[in-house]
Each structure stands twice: as C-alpha cells, then as structure tokens.
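Batch job 17 of 40 flagged for manual review because the log was empty.
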Amino acid sequence: MKILFDRHIPASLAPGGAQIQVDRTSAALAAIGVEVEPLRWWDEQQTGDLVHFFGTCNNDYLGVARAARRPVVVTTLFTETCNRSAARLSRQGLLVRALLALPFGEGIKQQLAWRTFHNCDQNVVGLAAEREVLRRVYRVSDGKISIVPLGLSEIFLNAGAGSRGENHLITTGTITERKNSVALAELAHAAQVPILFVGKPYHAADPYWRRFEKLVDERWVKLHPHVETEAEMAALLRAARGFVFMSAFENWCLSAHEAAACGLPLLVQDQNWSRERFGAQANYFPGFGVNDANIRALKKFYAAAPKLAAPGVKLTSWRDVAVALKQVYEKVLAARA
C-alpha cells in the first residue's frame, strides 16, 4: 500500500499544528509498514494507491483523481465550525441545501468545497463534534466519516508530571490572532498573573506580532522563542504551574494534550472541542477577551493550580493514529476493488 499525502497550505507559509499532524502521521504510518510519499504535483510518473488530502480539495481535484482511479481520503479541520451550537449548524445546513438546490449557477456550485465531503471516498475527522458538522451541515452519511484522533509523541506520553516549580503559567503555539495571543497577554497584565508564551509569529513583520511584542515585559508576559525539540517543550511544560489557552479556533488542540500529558491542569475556552476532550476535568474561561469574569477566572486558576491535577483522559500515540488510518485506507481500497 502506497499513500500520497497532499497538503493544501505549504508548511513554509503556515507552520504549526496542522503540519505537525501531517509529519507525525506520515512517520507513524511508515513505522508500521505503510509507504507514504508527499504528492509531487510536477511528477507525472509518481505512483500511489490512494491520496490523503489534508485540507478541503475542490471537485475538479476529485474528478481527475477519479479518472485516474485513485481514491481520495480528506482530512478537514473544522476548527471554528465544530464549536458552533447544534441549532446554528442546522441553520447553516438549511442554507447550504437551499443554495445547492437553486436551478442555476452549476459552474459555481462545482467550485464549492461543500460537495467535496460527499464526493471524496472518505472523510477523516478527529472529534465527534467535527462529525456533527458533516452530519448536520452537509448531510454526509456516517459510513463516509471516520473519527481518528490526533496523537502524541512518546516524549510527551512518557513525560509524567514534573516539578511545576516555576511561578508562571504556560501557553504554547503560534503568536497569531486566531490564538487570541494579544488578548491573553493583556489579560495577564490585568490579572497580574505571569504567563510564559512559547511560540513565534508566522512573520516578524506581522502587525499582530508587533502588538504582542509591546506587551512582553518578562514579568507578567514572558516569551520563549519557538523550541527546536519536543524534549525542550516537554521540559518547559513540566516546570510550569499550569497551562492556559484562549484560542478561538481549535478542534483537537495538540498543545492542551501535550500539557495534560506533562501533568498540568488546564484553563481553556469553554467550547465543544474542550468539553468533548476534557469534560469536567478542565477549568474554563467564561468567555473571550479582557473582562472582569476572565480576570477572576485567571486569578482563581493561578492560585489553585499547584493543587490541581491534570485531566486524566485517554491519550493516543501517533502509532495508534497510524493503525486506525491504515484500516480506513484498507476499507476505501477494498470498496474500489
């Protein structure tokens, strides 16, 4: 079995969790004997049994793949959509179906990603909340949806709790607007709670990064450049007092799971993804931004953190992910045989 991986956004333009998912999954599949190559768009001689597309490809892509008798599995990260209410998803689904039912504009409809979820051979998502998006909005049948969680490296799975001796909380990830990095830094100042930010911007000239830089005072807002190794990241996590995260666009959140594996209690946004993964075992912000309720929540968490335990949820390895994906690939290839 030979799988071709295709990612819609190059890592050089947007490094981060999505690229980690692709890299770790590819390596884990290779470790269990599945051959994986990046899809080389320029190489007409490249062979493969199946394409695994990370992102949302268009229907032209699926059409040429079908003509070449090459099935396509699609992993879409519904980072914002999966956190919408069931009622809102249902309303969104009504709108999608109404637009597709219009008796004109077929050329435009063919370019919409909405049909991808029906036309690909299998959809792979990480959460039940993401499956609900496919069900409610796009009416995709359960037989075309596989839930495969994200994994953690052995360094994190074997890390265990550390000293937690530092006086700061920690947050990890790219310094960017969708992570609400500036709001969290402003909240640290307002609550007078020290937070270590571990991450870097996509671009040094990014205006959002410039706003964040002005908040770094190494007292309430500390900054550690993006780490080079997972061992270094695990060490930073194990030394911290607790983990805090205010991102608005998450589905699985590798950062939170790495923190939990390193023995840290969590303070995160109250959203579908976090409730599904951590339930009552995490602490939650009452909302976004700098306000009295969030200030109180941050102060309370900081004071209580030394006595709080990490969420005791099941953590999967990348090998577990590879085994589950191999089963998905085998199912798709058998259906095409």
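Reviewer: the log was empty due to a logging misconfiguration, but the result itself is present. DSSP finds 14 helices and twelve strands in the chain. Unflagging and moving on to job 18.
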